[in-house]
Amino acid sequence: MIEQLDAVLLARVQFAFTVSFHFIFPAFSIGLASYLMVLEGLWLKTGRGVYANLYRYWLKIFAVGFGMGVVSGVVLSYQFGTNWSVFSTKAGPIIGPLMGYEVMTAFFLEAGFLGVMLFGISKVGKGLHFFSTCMVAFGTFISAFWILSVNSWMQTPAGFEINVDGQFVPGGSWWDIIFNPSFPYRLVHTVTAAYLTTAFAVGGVGAWHLLKDSTNVGARKMFSMAMWMAVIVTPFQIIAGDLHGLNTLEHQPVKVLAMEGDYDPSPEGAPLILFGLPDDEAAEVRYKVAIPKLGSLILKHDPNAPLPGLTDFPRDEWPPVAIVFWSFRIMVAIGFAMLAIGVWSLVARRRRKLYTSTKLQRAAVIMGPAGFVAVIAGWITTEVGRQPFTVYGLLRTAESSSPLDAPAVAVSLLAFIVVYTAVFGAGIYYLLRLMAQPPHRGESEPPNVPFHAAGITPASSIEAAPIGEGDPHGKL
Questions:
Q1: Residue 113 phi, psi dihedral angles, 5° rounding
Q2: Each residue's pLDDT tens digit, 186-212
Q3: In the chain, where are the structural domains located?
Q4: Angle at CA 457, nearest 5°, toward 453 and 463?
Q5: In whole angstroms, what is the distance from residue 408 CA to residue 14 CA?
Q6: CA-to-CA dists, residue 426 to 63, 416, 432, 433, 450, angstroms
Q7: Which of 112, 271, 336, 350 could form a disulfide with 290 if both were Cys (CB 3.0 to 4.6 A apart)?
Q8: Which letter does DSSP use for residue 311 in this model?
Q9: How far apart are CA 278 and CA 414, in angstroms?
Q10: Does the predicted TM-score (pTM) go above 0.85?
Q11: Nearest CA to 155 among 394, 398, 321?
């Protein structure tokens, strides 16, 4: 049975499985590091103990999530050498330096200041500790910068030459390689997605505790801040996604056509297919529900603009259309659901019911993990939509894998499934246990915290103030 399986397919499944686990942790770490930076900055600026307590509450969660992200990321590098050695050989002169830059900049920056951030709160001055938090947050962004530059180059390769050995080598300025055509759009879209993922996770936790105790100051504050992020950042993300889609149409038209389910060309304007069942063999979307000309309006900003179809391209260059079609719709649906929650929270805030609307809070709890689902759906759209290439248009996936037999790949895949389920299942369970603990308003600051020397009021005395004092309706 195993001998009959395709080794390349198994290698793809293995990489997809491991990177899906990995992706959710950096997405959370990027947003949560910035959230911690904001919390500590507000703590120093206002002296309000609620920010100090929230910082300490989320710092523990960040530490666990960050560690799981690092561990899961190591496995990906391992697979480049085992399952994808041909790709590593051919693309290594470009991919290798970019990933090396990520280690030398982001990883060293994070490693250098993470210890101070986690353990130095009662040992260093307020300025140094805040600087450490800022550096860790900046390091997570720099890490995303380099990794997304690598991925974007694979999507829209630029600035390269192919030498006599068939390797991709720098052909001019590294600037063209790093800032390839899709990179700016992918960076903005992905980092913003990380911020929204964190915002809804924080909002879901805050809403969970508000449903149990609507007077909890920490739950109120985290819920309020998360809802501000939802209402402000989600529209920006939708616009960024639209611009990213236009860039993808220019450089990877087959991917966009698969996302839209457009098999046939539309010389007088393409419809927007809302739902249906893509059928690659018949080259049609069965049982489709479509809105005429709306597809061209979205993609070309002209309802009558012509669009090609998948049938205009060789069939062996099509990705698996059904996967791309549905993953894209899941991502978009979650994006608009986030926007709806943000608008709902704004209405509730104006009516002074942000902390008493149990319907809104229940919806926020349901939407808590939605960001993670959206980033995975977006990753699937991007990566499966690039198929059948690893380097788009130049190096096929079937030509990139190591010369391994299917049983060898299958055994390692099964080992990964067992280990990941046990280790990361336990880690996620522990994270949920931490989130299930409410932020206590009476939580005291660590002993000998240098903030006291700066004249900042201890959290314990601030939290003894009446509930909601200074911010009765969650305006911050």
A1: -110, -10
A2: 999 999 999 999 999 999 999 999 999
A3: 7-265+308-462
A4: 150
A5: 12
A6: 15, 15, 10, 10, 36
A7: 271
A8: G
A9: 30
A10: yes
A11: 394
